[in-house]
Every structure is written in C-alpha cells, then in structure tokens.
Design a protein that fits this description.
α2 runs parallel beside α3 and α10 runs antiparallel to α12. The radius of gyration is 18 Å and the shape is globular. The protein contains twelve helices and ten strands. The chain is about 45% helix and about 10% strand. The protein is α/β, with parallel strands linked by helices and about 300 residues long. The protein has a single domain, classed as TIM Barrel, CATH 3.20.20.
Length: about 300
C-alpha cells in the first residue's frame, strides 16, 4: 500500500452528471473536473452523498471511478465512496478503485440495519486488511442512523491505513472531539462536510472541507479555507457570509431533502458544465424551480465573483 497522504483544503463531493438514470454524462464530467481543478481544489470525492453514490448501479459506479481518475490525471487525489450494505461489494469497489488509479476510499457505516459501536469496530477490523489503498471514515449519522463515536474513531486510528475522517454530522461539539484526537496521529486528516461550519472548523484545527457548493463555486470555498487556515479573520468572515448565501439560497428551492442536490445540479446545468439528471427515485427540477435557480445564480455571481 502506498504511503498515506495528508489532505488539506477543499475536496468537493462531486455530483454525478447523468443523462438518464444509468447513463453518465461523460463530457459533462470532464468539464466538471476541469472546473474544480481550475478552481484550486485539493482533491475530488466521488460517490458520496452529493454524488448519490448508493443510488447508482455498480456498473455506473465503476465507469464513474475509471473516468474520474482518467480525467483527473493525478493532478489532485481522487477519493471514492465505497459505502454499502454489502461488505463484499465495498471491498470489490475499493479494489477496482485502486486498479484504475484512485488514491483513497471513503466509508460510512452500513446504513440499513444500524450496527452498534462494538460491531462497527469489528467491521473496520475485518475490512481494512481487504483494502488495497488508504481509507477515510465518513461520519454521516443523519443518513446512516449511527455515528462513529470518538472511542470508535480512536480504535480506528490504530490502523495505519485509516488516514482520516470526514464529518458530516453538523455537530461542532463532535468536530472539537475529533480535533482533540488529532494528537494521537500526526498523519490523521479531519475534513468537515457542512460548509456552514467550514470557517469555524478550520479555525479550530480541522484540515479542510468536503463542501457541496464547491461543485458550483470552487474558488470561493478554496479562498475561505485558505483565509481561515492562515488566521485572516476579516477575510474569513467576509467569505463565510458568501458561503452562507450559497447554502441559504441554492439548497432550499424545492420541498424535499433532495433539493440540495437538485439545486447544485441545476446550477451546473445552467452554467453549461454538465447535465442535471438525477438518480431514481428523484427527478430533476422542472421549469419553475430552474427559473428560481437561475435567479439565484444571477444574484450570487456578482457577489461571489
């Protein structure tokens, strides 16, 4: 296994551009990746929540992994979500990811029958020896129904090939607990998913963000991370306010939780970057919501630059 790599900065959770329920928008994916890299991101995370990972066929997941690694060409690390209710399928996806050039894999707890913490520790202990590349844990209790508790994370740190954690709990107390654990591993990386907490978490000691809005405005999130990382509080407050406008205006234009992903995908479609098809059971925004997204972009682009 290659030496663990520490990830600092913004690693956007890429949306999965779709032309239909099982057809990848290949040209759109390439444009999206170039949009991210030209925006200064530190990595690419595919098949996460924003990428609708669990909703895709295994065939499409493999195509997405292969094409993302091909388009990225090693310019930034590629992280692949392998979360699944099937242990074997998680391992299979990790092995394929390694074969085509991915740098790391990312794993949330199995999300159908919630495991206890002792069961999670056993799961990790059994999984890690099967993985050919390093692993990030992904704390997403809102969707998986169970959290990686601090003691479980501490036990996971005993595995050198587990190199960090992405937290999407939205719980700043949990983030501080994770920051305390950084003393245990100098090479451990802590990334935070909720962009509303990006500034606070970096100022407190985290290493960056995995923020959905960076799909649309990568440079904004990179600039915010860099300002917070160097302790420029004035600029951090200014850029944080802009990020709050993105999340406040773009993510709540529909009636359901899927509106977050639909808002991002529609914005990218309106910017002529990629198609806005959704994985079933969800459908893309219709004309009424698309008009609202266009109005948000018209409002935000002069502010964000």
């Amino acid at each position: 296994m290659s030496a663990p790599k520490k990830y600092h900065g913004i690693t956007p959770p890429l949306i999965t551009p779709l032309l239909s329920r099982d057809t990848l928008d290949v040209a759109g994916l390439e444009r999206l990746i170039e949009h991210q890299i030209s925006g200064g991101v530190a990595g690419l995370f595919i098949l996460g929540t924003t990428g609708e990972g669990p909703s895709h066929s295994y065939r499409l997941r493999r195509e997405l992994i292969e094409r993302t690694c091909h388009f990225a060409q090693g310019r930034v690390p590629t992280l692949v979500g392998i979360t699944d209710t099937s242990f074997v399928e998680s391992v299979n996806l990790a092995r394929y990811s390694a074969e085509v050039g991915a740098d790391s894999v990312v794993l949330a707890p199995p999300y159908y029958l919630p495991p206890g913490q002792s069961e999670l520790i056993d799961y990790i202990n059994h999984l890690v020896p099967e993985l050919p590349i390093p692993l990030f844990l992904y704390n997403m209790p809102g969707l998986t129904k169970v959290s990686f508790e601090p003691e479980t994370v501490l036990r996971a740190m005993e595995h050198p090939s587990i190199i960090g954690l992405k937290d999407s709990s939205g719980n700043m107390i949990y983030v501080h607990r994770m920051i305390e654990l950084l003393r245990q591993r100098a090479d451990w990386t802590l990334l935070v998913g909720q962009e509303e907490l990006l500034a606070d978490s970096v100022l407190a000691g985290s290493h960056g963000g995995v923020n959905g809005g960076a799909n649309v405005f990568p440079r904004l999130y990179v600039n915010l991370y860099e300002a917070a990382n160097r302790g420029d509080l004035t600029l951090t407050r200014e850029l944080h306010a802009k990020v709050m406008q993105v999340s406040g205006k773009l993510y709540r234009l529909g009636d359901h939780a899927s509106s977050y992903i639909k808002g991002i995908k529609t914005a990218l479609s309106l910017l002529d970057i990629c198609d806005d098809g959704m994985a079933e059971p969800f459908q893309r925004f219709e004309s009424k919501e698309r008009a609202k997204v266009q109005a948000v972009l018209t409002e935000l682009q002069p502010i964000i630059g």
